[in-house]
Amino acid sequence: MKNENMDTQEIKRLIELYFECGTDVRQERMLRDYFSSGHADGELKRYEALFSRSDYDEASVPGDDFDMKILEMIQRPQVTENAKRPVGRTMKFVRIASMAACLAILVTVGIKRDNVNPEECMLCADTFSNPHEALNEIESVFSMMASRMQDGSEMIRHGAGLTEPVMDVFNIPGYNDRQCNRNI
Q1: Domain count, the chain
Q2: Which one of 5, 35, 149, 157 is most buried, by most CB atoms within 10 A?
Q3: Structural domain of residue 140, as residue ranges?
Q4: First-to-last CA distance in the chain?
Q5: Domain for residue 144, yes or no?
Q6: Distance CA 147, CA 129 (A)
Q7: What is the pLDDT of residues 124-172, one digit of tens each?
Q8: Phi, psi torsion values for 182, nearest 5 degrees
């Protein structure tokens, strides 16, 4: 009984190590052997499916020449695709052609910028020849703005009337619309 309990304690310790990635191949084999034997009790039963798989892959241990293969791969010079292909006349031509295209674009933009008519760039222009027409137009624009502002002010007054019942629900001390003289 004591030996079985010690086995259980050892298995619990190995399971903790397993989940912390601290087990080696021998310890994992011990866990697989224990759970495949069917000795797992109630508390350890939940780990049985994890360790008693029949298709469990054995860890492959690299051979003695593994280190040499890795070092050989690291020290081997890597030849890139660009190093294989010599830079010839074609690449020089492509570089020169791209520089010429950029230069042509810059010259075209400069010429186009110099040929712009200043009247086309004007953001505002005098469109009225009669000062009375201009004054009438400005008055109509201002009256339209005033009516829109009046509509907005009425909407605000209406919205303020909707918030008064909410304030009454919260009973905010010192808030009394009859005492406040608000002009919105």
Answers
A1: 2
A2: 35
A3: 131-184
A4: 89
A5: yes
A6: 28
A7: 667 788 889 889 999 999 999 999 999 888 888 777 766 666 656 666 5
A8: -100, 130
